[in-house]
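Quick one - first record:
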Amino acid sequence: MGPIVASPTATKASWKGLQAMNRRRFLRTTLAAGGGLTLMGRAAARSYAANERVNVGLIGVSGRGTWFVDCMPGISNVVAMCDVNDYRAKKAYEAHPKARKFRDFRKMLDEMGDGLDAVTIAVPDNTHAVAAAAAMRAGKGVLCEKPLTHDVYEARRMRLIGHRTKVATQMGNQGTASGAFRRAVDLLWTGVLGEVREVYAWKDGGGAGERPIPIEQHNCPSTLDWDLWLGPARYRPYNSRWAEWHTWRDFATGNLGNWASHTLNVVFKGLRLDELWKDGAGVHTFNLEAKVTGTHEATFPRGEMIKYEFPARGDMPPVTVNWYNGGAQAMGWREPLEEKLGRKLDWGDAGEKRWDDHAGVLLVGSKSMMHSNGHNTVMTLLPQKQFEGFQDPPATLPRSRGHEREWLDAVKGGPAAMSNFEYSGPLAEFLLLGNVATLVEGPIEFDAARCGITNNDKANALLRREYREGWKL
C-alpha cells in the first residue's frame, strides 16, 4: 500500500493559480473532499439562506494572516479587517477596499455588531486567547490559528467559553480536514498497527537558545500600535528584536505550538489521548519530563527531548510519546530514529526541505508502523511490502469539504468542525505542557480533570501568566 495522500479536489474553486509547492501552497493542495461531520452542530446566531455567505472579520492580515486574506474571500463575505501594523497590512487592505479597517479587535467587535458573524484570528500567540474569548462572548464564530493559546490555562478557558457560548469554533491545524488524516485515524482505531506503545515525533529546527534580552529602546514606527501588539504581555519599550516574536516565550509557544499542533494531531486523535480530558474517564493523569540544551527562561531551548507517559485508554495500551525538537546530533536522537524508520532523514537545505522529513511522526505498533509528514497530510504504512494489496477497512470518520469550509458550515448551524475547541483545547494543553517541562527539573504529573500539576508547585504556577492591566479573558 502506498502513501495515504489527501485529495486536492475540494479546494479547486477556492485556491487559484497554485504552482510551486511552498509551505502555504502545499497545505492548500491537501485539503480533502467529502461529506460533513456527524458531530452535533451549534445553533447558528442567525438564519441563513441556502447559498448565503457568512460575514467574516479577519483579525491579523499579515504574516500567517495572509492565508485567510487569500482564502476567505472565495468562501465568505470579508466585511472587516483588523491589524495593529498598518504597513504590514497595506497589501491586504488595498486588495479589499470595501472591508472596514480596524487596529483594535475589541473596537471591531463592538462597532460591527450584528454585521459580523464570525472571525479568524492569526496574530502572535500571546493574543490568541483574549481575541477568541472576546469574539465568542460577542456571539461570533471563531477560527483561531494554531496554537490555540499561549499557555495551558488559556486553553482550558477557551474550551469552557466555547462550551458556554455555543458558537462555532475551530483551531487552524488544517491537516485535520485532510483525507489522509481521517483515514489514518480510522486505521488506528481498527487496530491495523496492533498495540501502539511508542511514538516518535520530531522537528529539525529547535529554538533560539540563549539570547540577550533586548533592553535598548528603539523608535517605534508610526504605522505600528505597540501597545496593542503587546496585548496581555507585560509592557516593555519598543525594540525591533521583540518583533522577532517566535524567539520569545512571552509571545510564542515554540515548535510545540507552531508545529506539533499539526504533527501530533493524528496521535492525539488516533490513540484517543483526548479521552483523559473527558468526564467519566477512569484515569486523568499522565507524566512528562524534558531534557534540553541551550535553554533560557526567556527563549526556547536550542534542543529538546520531551517524553510523555500516558496510561491505558479503553482498549488502547499505555503509550510513550517522544517529542524531539532541534539538537538532533548533539542530543543523539537522529540515528536511533532513522534506525526505527528504516531510512535516513533528509533535512535538505533551507529552500528545499523535504516535507516528510524535516518534521514528522512515527507510530510504532506490535504489527506494523505508520509514518506521517509534519502536517498529517501524507501517511504511509510500514513496512510497505507488508501492505501490498491491503484493503482498507470501512471508513468511520466522515470526510471534510476543507478546513475553513467545515468551520463556515458550523457557523451556519451545521455539524461542529472536528478541530473545535472541545477537542483542540485539550490538544493544546497536552502540547503546551511540554514548554512547562523545559523550565523545571525532573518529571511532572498533570491531572487533566483539575488542570493542574500535582507534584511540582513551580511547574503548576507556569500553567498560566499574569495579564497586564486592561486585558482579561
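second record:
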Amino acid sequence: MRDNRERLSITEEVDLIELIERLWRRKLLIFGTALTVLIAAVAYVFLATPIYQAKVFVQAPTQNDIANLNYGRSEGQGGLGVLTVKEVYDTYLRNLLSESLRRKFFREVYLPSLDGKVTDRGQDELYARYVKALRVTVAGKDTPDRYSITADLPDAQQAVKWVTLYARMAGDLAKQEVLKDARSDALVKAGNLEQEIASVQETARKRREDQIVQLREALAVARSIGLEKPPIISGNLSTEVSARMDGSLTYMRGSKALEAEIENLEKRPSDDPFISGLRAQQAGLAFFRSLDVPAESITVYRLDGDVELPDKPIEPRKLLIIVAAAVLGLLLGCIAAIIANLLRGRVRVGPGA
C-alpha cells in the first residue's frame, strides 16, 4: 500500500516535470502569444480616448444665504411664515434630481457639444450615454442631504464646466420656484389686508350713517322742546348730566350743536382718520404689494469646496490593463502550447496505428 503511494507520487512529479519541459520547448509560442496580447493591450492603452472625472459636492445654504427671502415674514399671528433652510434646500434638491432638468441639460448642453459627430445614433442611445456620463448621487449615507454631481468626459475642462453648470441650472430653477412662491404669498397677504381694510372702512361708514340717524332723532327732540343750547346746570349734577349727553339724552346738547355735528358728519370726506389701526394696515398693504426679493440676493445651495481640474484620467487604467494582458497572454500561450503538443502527439501516433 505504502509502495503504491510512493510510486503514484513519483509518477505525478514526473508528469509535472514532463509538462514543464514540454511547455519550455514551446517557449517561443508561449512568449510570442503573450507578447502579441501585451502589444495589443499597450496599443489600446495609448490609443483609447482618456476619460476624466470631475465631481462637485452641494449642500444646504446658511440662514444668512436666505435672509432676504424672509424679509417681512414673521411667526406672529397673521404674518407670513418664516422660510427655513430645509424648505429652501428641499426645493433645490427636487429640481436637482428632476427628470425635467436632466432633459433640459441634454437638449441645451449635451447635444450641442456633439457638433454633429454622432448624428447617425438615435436619441435613446445618445441619452443612455449622457446618463452614464453625468450622474447625481448622494455623497454618503452619513450625510443624506449632501449630493455629488459627477461628469466623466474626454475633456477635463468640459467635465468641470458641466458639473458646475448643472448645479447652477438647478439653483436657477429652485430660485425661480422659491421667489415665485414668496411673491404669491405676499400677494395673498396683500389681498387679505385689502379685504380687511375695505371691511373696516365699510363698517366705519355704516357707523357714521347710524350716528347721523341718531343725531337727527335727537335734533327732532331738541327742536320739539325748543332747546337750542345745552341747559345750564350747577353743581355736581352738571358734571353728571354732561357726561351722559348721549343715547337718550343726546338731545340735551341743543339743536345748534346737533345741527353742526350732523353737518360735519355728512361733509366728512373719509372715515379713515377715525379708524383705529387703519394706517398700519395700509402700510402693510403697500409693503406686501411691492415686496419683490431680487434673485441675486439669495442662495439656495452651497458648493462644498472648489471644483478642481482633473489632471489624470480615470480610464483607461493603464497599469491594470498591462498587467492583466501579460497574465492573460502567458495563460493563452500555455494553452496554445499544450494544444500544439497534443496535436503533435496525435500526428506521431497516427502512422504507427
